[in-house]
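Message: A physicist's question: would you kindly supply an amino acid chain plus fold tokens?
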Amino acid sequence: MSRFDDKDLKMLKDVLDTNFKAKKSKKFVKIFEDKFAKKFNCKYGISCCNGTATLHGILMGMGIKDGDEVITTPLTMSSTSLCILHANALPVFADVDPDTFQILPESIESKINSRTKAIITVSLYGLSPEMDEIMKIAKKHNLYVIEDNAQCFLGEYKGKIIGSIGHASSFSFQNSKHMTTGEGGMILTNDIQLQDNICKSTILGYKTVGELAPKFDNKQFRDPAFKRHIAFGYNYRMSELCCAVGLSQLEKLDFLVNKRIEIANKFNDVLNETNCNWLIPQKVNDYIKHTYWGFTVKLARDDITFIEFRDKLMEYGGKAPYAAWELTYLEPLFENQKFKTYQLQEFKKGLCPNAEYLQSRIISFQNNYIDDEILKQQLNALRHTIKYFKKKIIAVIFCRLGSSRLPNKGLLKLNNVSAISRVILNVKKMNVDDIILATSKNAENIKLKKYAEKHNIKFLQGSENNIFDRSNDVIKKLKLKTHDYILRVGADDVCRSYEIANILIKKTIESNELLDYVCDNPYICPTGLGSELLSVKSIIYFNNLFKENNEHLTFYYVAFKNVLNLKSINIDERYKLNCCITMDTKEDYNNLNKFFIQNHIGENPIDIDTVISYFKVNKKKESNVCIGNSPDETIKFLNEQCSKYDGFSECYNIFEELNKLK
């Protein structure tokens, strides 16, 4: 079944065949109104020329006027608020739920005062607000509730069809809606007096319209003394042709709604199969039926903008998704304006924090595809886009054989297994996307290549200069993106715990922030057990910032904490070790070799409990952040080096600074 077919054409022809003789053509309007109302379990339907006229007509029928206030949401098309201004009343904005995107009952109640006369809810993207709570609030304060259901057809709330719960409801038939007549709208109500009032408000104030109007015959109508207009009203009537298409569309409405639900589920399947935890669909409680005007998600990452996501999706062949409308009170017509002398709200940023947070993060995917091939293309584009923006964790093992304190330390044997092999064995148990052994271009470092080949990891001989330059070489080689991470590992980290690293990796992947530097609890970080994750963005930042000797990586992150996002992840106390077990000197090597021999550790990743139990008894040098052969002099030099750069914060105790991280 397609959205339009021969039945739609036949209905149009049936109207045209009447030659628009009133007695014959007008029946299409009445039949459409009655059938639509019945479909939505309501008594009365009033067709209008569009879905803004419907809202305005309802407000007029309710007697909303100058001096009155109507509470609504700012997170929707501004027509919902413009109709309040059309009625010469004042819109008052309530905040929304950050998970459902719907107007919050508690925010509504906090905005009620003696001028409040009505609440307009919006079933945004096809999902109902919490109507029971809103109706209770309305009853308590003697207010009208108007349902703006332009985006919600056949939705349900606790077994009730959306559109039958409030005092009146509004639907739009604009061409993007579940069913369309090209343009048009419908008002539903169960209140006969309200129906009569609305009819007069939307059809020129005629005394001949509405359920309570007396019957008139043609003689009376054609009397020159006949007085028609008994109230102020607009000409919001819907044409017979539009109503005829509406009748045909109504017959297909179940199919059209179910198709959107089916497609929304397929979009959701893509999120599940890609383990995407940063495109978060609207929360749908189990007592609500969502009918998905669009499949709409919240972009829950700070390192990706809507524009970046949209452009990448289109690059992969996807159609541009829809952004949220600008919040109504931040549109130029509203922002910083005072419409009434009694207006209490200031229409500016800060008014509705949840709505403001959501507005730039909402992504709504078109989901009214009839052609399955086009749908497949859209789903594949989404898969590729999610994969592109997936945070990748690359373990980079930095190793040079020319260390002055411990030459060739990567090649030294620990119970007959080289240090570099032990490091690689531990790293291969970490949940990383790739592993690369990075060294400088000195000829002697080519010896390391056979270890990379033996363990089937990548090898790179890059910059002679420093760790940031070599990191940048890795970024270029692997084409890493700013939201990716490097897990830094040294050739002396022979006891680096894959368990701790995996905790950090999990927390980093799950975070909605772009964390520039992530370490484990500082009680562990300097010991040789813990790990550090560095964002590609931060590495590029430092590489662009200065070109001096940059070996002392941890210092730089702490010293520039004011411009970077640093985070420490709390690790279980059982991992705590108050001594340092890195392999930096000959003495360190002898102690570690003894550990591997006594514990019979062959070519296997190291168990952290074995490490901790051994070194708690055989305690070695104190846990400390050592920098160079003379830590104090080195720190002083680094502070002087960095003092000329913006964002620098003097640092003399790295351990204390790490301990302050949250």
About this structure: The radius of gyration is 34 Å. The first helix runs from residue 6 to 16.
